[in-house]
Write a structure and sequence with these properties.
single chain, 11% strand, 50% helix, 272 residues, globular, three-stranded antiparallel β-sheet, two-stranded antiparallel ribbon, mainly alpha
């Protein structure tokens, strides 16, 4: 109503039913399984016109990719390196049509991940949610969860393309390790860009102190509390009480593991 589309986009992202009514002509419209794609280009400031707040559930349903371009003139001719772009995209559109028709020949296709791939997906989700909630904001937890869904969808797309390219006829599609790793690398990249966009958007809740991120990175793989206190004081001018609070939170969120002997161990060996 009145130009609000957030609810529609959030439901369409999961193919959930969408319905609306109009008083005029007693109109009632229901879309049982919406299939909507949205691809937008613009400047970071324009995102605010689409997503009003970082806490909006719509934020976690989008993939973001940001980059800077050089201030140079782009060739404006109708060819690129001798290639007619109109003909080039006409050929690509024919290939996309062939792909759609290839999939339409099956009544039902079952997609599967291997047990090892499921383990990797679950590990990524667990590490991602701890990483973002601890070092950025708990509001990004939903982004971690939906990136897991997007990872699965990317695996489906890459696998379908692989079977199409190989002209393989089967009702069961199994993801290869190569395609899974490609999808995982893509999602990790999109996560970094989501963090950038999150920090650019207005938010009502507080973001975790960035000093804790620096403090965590400065800690060795294995250390005692006294070593951590010294690093906090000497490198970041952090008081002992604050350092203990950081250690406690990092342990709670499973970024650190504490043994009975008072030795801490980093659980996450690489930054996501």
């Amino acid at each position: 109503d009145w130009g609000s589309y957030s609810d529609l986009l959030r439901k369409a992202a999961h193919h959930e039913p969408i319905s609306y009514s109009r008083k005029a002509n007693k109109e009632w419209v229901e879309i049982k399984r919406p299939c909507l794609s949205v691809a937008l280009a613009g400047t970071p400031n324009q995102v605010d016109n689409l997503i009003k707040s970082a806490e909006d559930g719509l934020f976690s349903r989008f993939l973001f990719y940001t980059f800077k371009t050089d201030a140079v003139w782009v060739n404006a001719s109708d060819t690129l390196n001798g290639i007619n772009l109109t003909n080039h995209f006409d050929i690509l559109s024919d290939k996309v049509l062939n792909f759609v028709e290839f999939l339409a020949t099956y009544e039902k296709i079952t997609f599967q991940l291997t047990e090892q791939q499921w383990a990797k997906l679950n590990q990524f989700g667990s590490e991602s949610i701890n990483e973002l909630a601890t070092f950025v904001s708990e509001d990004l937890s939903s982004t971690s969860k939906r990136l897991g869904l997007i990872l699965y969808r990317l695996c489906m797309i890459l696998t379908a393309l692989r079977y199409f390219d190989n002209a393989e006829s089967t009702n069961i599609y199994i993801c290869t390790d190569e395609d899974f790793d490609i999808a995982l690398h893509l999602v990790k990249t999109y996560q970094e860009h989501a963090v950038f966009m999150f920090n650019e958007l207005p938010k009502s809740s507080s973001v975790t102190d960035k000093v804790m991120r620096l403090f965590f990175d400065a800690l060795p793989q294995k250390f005692k509390r006294k070593e951590a206190i010294d690093i906090a004081a000497n490198q970041f001018d952090i008081k002992e009480r604050t350092a203990d609070l950081y250690l406690s939170k990092l342990t709670t969120t499973k970024c650190l593991e504490k043994s009975k002997s008072g030795v801490y161990l980093k659980i996450q060996k690489e930054r996501i």
